Amino acid sequence: MADKGCLMVISAHAADFVWRAGGAIALYSGRGWKVRVLCLTFGERGESASLWKAGKSLDEIKRTRREEAERAAEILGAEIRFLDVGDYPIEVTPALRDTLVQEFRQHQPDILLTHTFLDPYNADHPRTAELVRETRILAQAHGYPSEDPPIGAPQLYSFEPHQPEQCQFRIDLLLDITPVFEQKRKAMECMQAQEHLWAYYTDVAKRRGVQAGRNSGQKIVYAEAYQRVFPSVGGAFV
Amino acid sequence: MADKGCLMVISAHAADFVWRAGGAIALYSGRGWKVRVLCLTFGERGESASLWKAGKSLDEIKRTRREEAERAAEILGAEIRFLDVGDYPIEVTPALRDTLVQEFRQHQPDILLTHTFLDPYNADHPRTAELVRETRILAQAHGYPSEDPPIGAPQLYSFEPHQPEQCQFRIDLLLDITPVFEQKRKAMECMQAQEHLWAYYTDVAKRRGVQAGRNSGQKIVYAEAYQRVFPSVGGAFV
Amino acid sequence: MADKGCLMVISAHAADFVWRAGGAIALYSGRGWKVRVLCLTFGERGESASLWKAGKSLDEIKRTRREEAERAAEILGAEIRFLDVGDYPIEVTPALRDTLVQEFRQHQPDILLTHTFLDPYNADHPRTAELVRETRILAQAHGYPSEDPPIGAPQLYSFEPHQPEQCQFRIDLLLDITPVFEQKRKAMECMQAQEHLWAYYTDVAKRRGVQAGRNSGQKIVYAEAYQRVFPSVGGAFV
Amino acid sequence: MADKGCLMVISAHAADFVWRAGGAIALYSGRGWKVRVLCLTFGERGESASLWKAGKSLDEIKRTRREEAERAAEILGAEIRFLDVGDYPIEVTPALRDTLVQEFRQHQPDILLTHTFLDPYNADHPRTAELVRETRILAQAHGYPSEDPPIGAPQLYSFEPHQPEQCQFRIDLLLDITPVFEQKRKAMECMQAQEHLWAYYTDVAKRRGVQAGRNSGQKIVYAEAYQRVFPSVGGAFV
Amino acid sequence: MADKGCLMVISAHAADFVWRAGGAIALYSGRGWKVRVLCLTFGERGESASLWKAGKSLDEIKRTRREEAERAAEILGAEIRFLDVGDYPIEVTPALRDTLVQEFRQHQPDILLTHTFLDPYNADHPRTAELVRETRILAQAHGYPSEDPPIGAPQLYSFEPHQPEQCQFRIDLLLDITPVFEQKRKAMECMQAQEHLWAYYTDVAKRRGVQAGRNSGQKIVYAEAYQRVFPSVGGAFV
Amino acid sequence: MADKGCLMVISAHAADFVWRAGGAIALYSGRGWKVRVLCLTFGERGESASLWKAGKSLDEIKRTRREEAERAAEILGAEIRFLDVGDYPIEVTPALRDTLVQEFRQHQPDILLTHTFLDPYNADHPRTAELVRETRILAQAHGYPSEDPPIGAPQLYSFEPHQPEQCQFRIDLLLDITPVFEQKRKAMECMQAQEHLWAYYTDVAKRRGVQAGRNSGQKIVYAEAYQRVFPSVGGAFV
Fold first, then answer.
1. Which of B133, B141, B231 is closest, CB to CB, to C88?
2. CB-based contact (8 Å) between A93 and chain D?
3. F172 and E232: CB-CB below 8 Å?
4. Which Pfam families does this entry report, sorted A to Z (chains A, B, C, D, E, F) (predicted)?
5. ipTM score here?
6. Which of A6, B24, D47, D208 has the fewest C-beta atoms under 10 angstroms from its C-beta?
């Protein structure tokens, strides 16, 4: 299957990949790509307010978030790995950097999806984005120590943050996720602790769908928005 | 042939389309697309210094520039139309706007290529870009009077200006023009009055080719750079 | 009533003020302010696609759009005036400029609401915004001929465009319109020709409401987003 | 008194809060708010040139700067705490982050004032700004360990840097400090080592006062300029 | 004298050149350069509020402003020409464009000074800046009809607007005007109708002087700030 | 010789100073300035792909890169020091910061050249730029411990990155390196492992030369592009 390509999604917290890139994941796994999600943390401190209010312990919360994310990944057709480095704040260490480099070396991704480089509402998100941008470069270097060969030049996209207008988020790509939206919806529903976001992100997908239609003249119901870090390269206007 | 699509290039002066989009034109005409170039002017006042220095009259210069541009278009496989509205400065009139709207209505372009929206070295270029952006919108409106039906939502790209760093030019797409570069070179050589630019734009194409290679991991020798005005829309990361 | 203040909304087309500022209008008219809407055009060519498709004539369309806008203004508690200068494109003439200056002189607005200064999907919108920014300045000048006295320094806000991320729209103010949302909804429903936008802008109001809550810790259901052109001035952090 | 609200000012060095936010502090303390100043350092290395030139020791300089800042805070009506983490450079450690989080948790600020996010003349300032932006988020998280409850969504403002045009400082708010300017002047005069700045920042306050008048039509003599990090939220245009 | 070079200042209104570039003018005229000021208007409507309040007629105001500007130019050592095209608003016509082109052709300036390209407080200023940027290009074109030869590539600078932070004014050059400040002060004092600005712009010059000192380590008392439109070119870092 | 001034170049990897600032170095050393190059690393991991492919060891690679850089520095007339802190990634430690501060204190540079603050293709480059910007400030502080006196306010420039359009590189200065280009070419040819860059950077120098000519009207063949961090200060428009 990996012949077809590999999509990697680097998610600061356990649920980010679902709200922000669930459609992309379902789309590519459905096409036979390997899709691999790296969760740096479970979002245990920063994005589990209702569990804390319900009196859960840190361990319970991590277990709950892990189980939810695993179910969501399964629905979307993705592998998932939890690095469990601790959130709020994520500390970027040499060990964490090396883990990402070795992941990229081993899985040779064609496409990388992660957070935006600015987010005044969340410091873990831009830190993750910078970490990915840097480790992608390290993984390209012949001199970086590894048992696996250097990677090529995988594309890197930022997925849509919660408040895009405050994050200098520029939409470069509206990805049509209409064929897989039901999968994304089911994956979102795994996130029991964040039920208020199910409808919210369904509305986001609809609005991006309307915009995708207006920007293409095609009939599109649901879409996800992405910002490119590097130029597209190819033989056609796309 | 138009079944395959229509690419329109709107060029402020007679030669702009060659230096900036000659590869794209050759590529698409070679694929059986209709490619249509609109030259708002011959560049008779602003971009024909050597002919003025040689003592030519305005009419001679316009004829010369027209002939060169026609030969270049022929080499590239494009139709060409000259609006002859006078350059340095181009005055945007209601009549000029309407001409563009009717062109878009009649030819139903899928892709539009034109100048950047900022250029401190040339006031005709950004004015043309704004004209295209606006007339594309007018051509979409059902209420705009025309014998032809409204257009859809053609993509709009800015091609690379002469001094990109001073024009806030962001490269969104590196278009691989390796297979057609010889055609572009021959088309450039039609511009007798601007021989100093042949080598210059060959170098630009090489440098963009190197960057295309670095950004994709592919082997690319020559490329052209483009900036997108609207988001891409589709079912894949491109 | 004018003692309490005057809010003026300058709308390029007949319906813009409803989708984009209907909540603000209802809020301020409900507080006893004079709210005055200037529609430069009926949106007859550019924003009445369904009426054109239904075979209506230009005059019928203008009449229909006028009636809808008048009903919407009435529901929102605003005066409305149509300048009927023709849309797609709006041509900015000295006469149009003077009309706006005299409006500002006569009504002495405290707050002005209009479009954004960039909108790649609509050329009438930024042109209207620039017109308002300039005529506000002219109306301040003692030497500008008028029977009415110069205005002070009314605040100027851009309301939210259809695709904010493509318009460099920065949210400076989230206006809580929860108490008047039903009025805005009823006003939107006057726009028979644009029924697809009722739900769309209800969703926008909800999403802005969620963001208003997150940015303030208050319970807010519906909000409208605005961008400031000039700094706030006052004796408190607001 | 805290019923009325709490304003916290986070100052990289001992004197920053006086030059940049002294008016705001006097204004709010005069209204019965609790105003609390956190000085990360005494500015002992980086902003005490005249004391070093006079041959003072590090300890003497720290004592002098502390005494000046304490007097200034007293004049302005503020509490003050010195974290003494060492300046030039300030090193951001987990312990420093936690200290700020616990401060926010304990004092539950309604408004936060700090430095800008860019300052090519001072690396401690943007580092402090990022520290405040991040710790404000951490303090909001239910899962962050603390004996005090999470904070809401306090507004965050950057005060004016020394060379605003080089710091991308955008003025969002001109705060009228006319009623308290004499207090600010007296507080500035506590800074014996920086006498050249007394007149300088009196001039800045006057210029901002003139601008406040021009932007509002009100009579304002002295003002301070602030940039907002998050949107305003409320029921009125402000 | 013209052997030494020619500095041209294009001023939207009669007094702009004094407040914003008076130091530069005195400096260069003192060095034997030809300095030529073009005032597009007298600022009769937009910048003569006190004369209007005093009941003067349009003709009286224009005469007064002309006399003041002539005296100021004389003090600064500059030629001055009034185009009297009418302010608030300045209308850019083909005739006005041609006048500027012929001025540039005839006087062959080495340096051009004018307004900024953004100013939300004054629409005449950015319009003048765009006019100068465009006519400079036209004057370079061999094909533009004129009895005088094309110009080279004179540098173009924006001088400091009244509220620089709102005009995206970036300071690229701090010009030391200490040796000529008294001349600038005397020239400012010619502007009887704007006495409130004498002290204001003396303060601006002092503040820029302080910044010039900080940015260079030199002893500078008064300076003017400028923004470059084109790159510097030369054999040294400057 | 140091009387004439001191130019310091801070290079993340061993070869950066050659491609990006070789002309400036040759120009200033030829004028009798002290030119001092600090290489933070040998570029051993990140910029020595061909040596890794040839099976060299880390130590061999470092030795090779050192020898090449030493030869290049000699050709250009510069001193060179290698800090050998390890590349890909460079870790910024307090010790590294102090080393730079002491270098600046000891050599009292008048001009500093380094990388850009953004580079999505290389994380070491912006980190080095931030390091230089900060340590320059530290070296200015009287309270920073050192045996050498504080520095003044040396200018700081970014040299041109490999893909300037992706790095927000704005050209503020085109430095004419025509008289020393042969030296730069020879220095480039010392970099045996990067032969593909010799022609590439010769082309860059030519293109910048063409632009330098267009922006000045002078005859310039080769140039290097630089972006300024602080305003120029002086008595002339430059």
1. B141
2. no
3. yes
4. PIG-L
5. 0.95
6. A6
Q: Distance of alpha carbon D103 from its chain centroid, rounded?
A: 15
| B161 φ/ψ angles, rounded to the nearest 5 degrees | -80, 175
- Whether D200 sits inside 8 A of E214 (CB atoms) is no
Q: What CATH number is associated with residue E10?
A: 3.40.50.10320
Q: Which DSSP string corresponds to F180-213?
A: GHHHHHHHHHT-GGGTHHHHHHHHHHHHHHHHHH
In chain A the beta strands, taken as DSSP E runs, fall at: 6-11, 34-39, 79-82, 111-114, 155-159, 173-176, 223-228, 232-234
- The set of residues, in sequence order, having a beta carbon less than 8 Å from that of E77 and lying 6+ positions away, is E25, E26, E29, E30, E35, E183
Torsions phi, psi of C154, nearest 5? -60, 145
Contacts of A89 in chain D (CB under 8 A): 97, 134, 138
CB spacing of C207 vs A203 below 8 angstroms: yes
Q: What are phi and psi of D175, to 5 degrees?
A: -90, 120
**pLDDT tens-digit map of E12-45:** 999 999 999 999 999 999 999 999 999 999 999 9
D–F CB contacts, 8 A cutoff, strictly below: 39
Mean pLDDT of all residues belonging to chain E: 96
Over the stretch E120-176, which tens digit does the pLDDT of each residue have? 999 999 999 999 999 999 999 999 999 999 999 999 999 999 999 999 999 999 999
pLDDT digits (tens, 9 = 90+) for D70-95: 999 999 999 999 999 999 999 999 99
d(CA F48, CA F51) in angstroms, rounded, equals: 6
Q: How far is F166 from chain B (nearest CA, A)?
A: 7
Total tally of structural domains belonging to chain F:
1
Rounded mean pLDDT, C21-34: 98
Three-state SS sequence of C37-67: EEECCCCCCCCCHHHHHCCCCHHHHHHHHHH
Provide the token pair at D176: 């009228």
Is A9:A20 a contact under the CB 8 Å cutoff?
no
Cβ proximity of C14 and C68 under 8 Å = yes
Cβ neighbours of C219 (radius 10 Å): 10
Confidence band for B1, pLDDT divided at 50, 70 and 90: very low
- Amino acid, single-letter form, for residue E118: L
Phi-psi map region of A237: left, alpha, beta (phi>0 left; psi -120 to 50 alpha): beta
D167 touches chain F (CB under 8 A): no
Q: Is B237–A155 a contact, with Cβ atoms under 8 angstroms apart?
A: yes
Search chain F and give the residue with CA nearest E228.
F172
A238 found inside a domain: no
The verdict on residue E52 lying in a domain is: yes
What pLDDT is stored for residue C3 in this prediction?
A: 75
* Residue D196 confidence class, pLDDT cut points 50, 70, 90: confident
Alpha-carbon F158 to chain mean position: 8
For residue C1, is pLDDT > 90?
Answer: no
In a domain, E140, yes or no: yes
Mean per-residue pLDDT for C215-223?
Answer: 95
Asked whether residue E75 is assigned to any structural domain, the reply reads yes
Q: Pairing state of beta strands E6-11 and E111-114?
A: parallel
Residues 104-133 of F with CB under 8 A from A: 120-123
Q: State whether residue B187 sits within 8 Å of chain C by CB.
A: no
Out of E24, E152, E232, name the one closest to residue F173 (CB): E232
> Mean pLDDT, to the nearest integer, of D202-210?
96
Pairs of residues, one from chain A and one from chain B, whose beta carbons lie less than 8 Å apart: 96
Predicted confidence at residue C128, as pLDDT, reads: 98
Containing structural domain, residue E77: 6-228
Give chain A's residues under pLDDT 50: 1-2
A228 has a chain F CB within 8 A of its CB = no
pTM for this entry: 0.96
Crossing angle of helices D196-216 and D16-30, in 10° steps, is: 50
Q: What would the two tokens of residue C151 be?
A: 């205005």
